[in-house]
Design a protein that fits this description.
This protein is an alpha+beta fold. Helix content is 35%, strand content 27%. Strands 1, 2, 3, 4, 5 and 6 form a six-stranded antiparallel beta sheet that branches.
């Protein structure tokens, strides 16, 4: 927890001094792989990628003005699902950048794209797509309501293929959860 706090505090100070940007613009957070980030394979642990993306997502919420809208309305941001693709490793002391941007929304969810890039080579290291929603005390908040309160106007967006694939995966996962316990679905080949 302290390790995440050590990365979050500088991000909070930096994000609050930067100008607001549209939600569709990528917000970048730089980091360096430290000794407590690596696993037995001596590279950045897959769980640590997710923590670094969390820090970057918080910076994105601040920089887009979305966090202020959430606070003002007393909504709770909720991560519905996340799919990651790890392409290359990041080793000790390497520097990288995490980026988050809005890629679309539907009636209930907003879809965010996350990219991790090696700063030295410029090559992509990891890629993710997440769906996030917002709850008031008793209901889900439609993304359209959020969109209208943001400081920058957002025009309609077509949900990209990778966001649609996440949605299809989630529907299948919901179907699996509804089946009786103990029944195996699909094959693992």
């Amino acid at each position: 927890m302290l390790k995440l706090f050590a990365r979050s505090l500088p991000m909070l100070m930096r994000a609050n001094r930067q100008p607001l940007v549209p939600a569709t613009e990528a917000v970048a957070t730089r980091f360096q792989v430290l000794p407590h980030d690596i696993d037995i394979n001596r590279h950045l642990n897959n769980g640590r990628y997710l923590q670094l993306i969390d820090v970057n997502r918080a910076e994105w919420l601040i920089r887009t003005g979305m966090l202020e809208v959430i606070r003002r309305n007393r909504w709770k941001p909720i991560l519905g699902s996340l799919a990651m693709n790890y392409r290359r490793e990041l080793c000790l002391w390497e520097r990288a950048t995490v980026e988050t941007r809005l890629v679309g929304w539907d009636q209930r969810w907003t879809y965010l794209e996350h990219r991790v890039t090696n700063e030295k080579s410029g090559r992509p290291v990891a890629f993710g797509i997440a769906k996030a929603g917002f709850r008031s005390q008793d209901r889900w908040v439609a993304p359209e309501i959020l969109r209208l309160q943001l400081p920058f106007p957002l025009s309609s967006m077509v949900l990209p293929g990778h966001a649609q694939a996440l949605l299809a995966f989630d529907r299948e996962a919901d179907t699996c959860h509804q089946r009786k316990q103990g029944e195996m679905v699909g094959s693992y080949t």
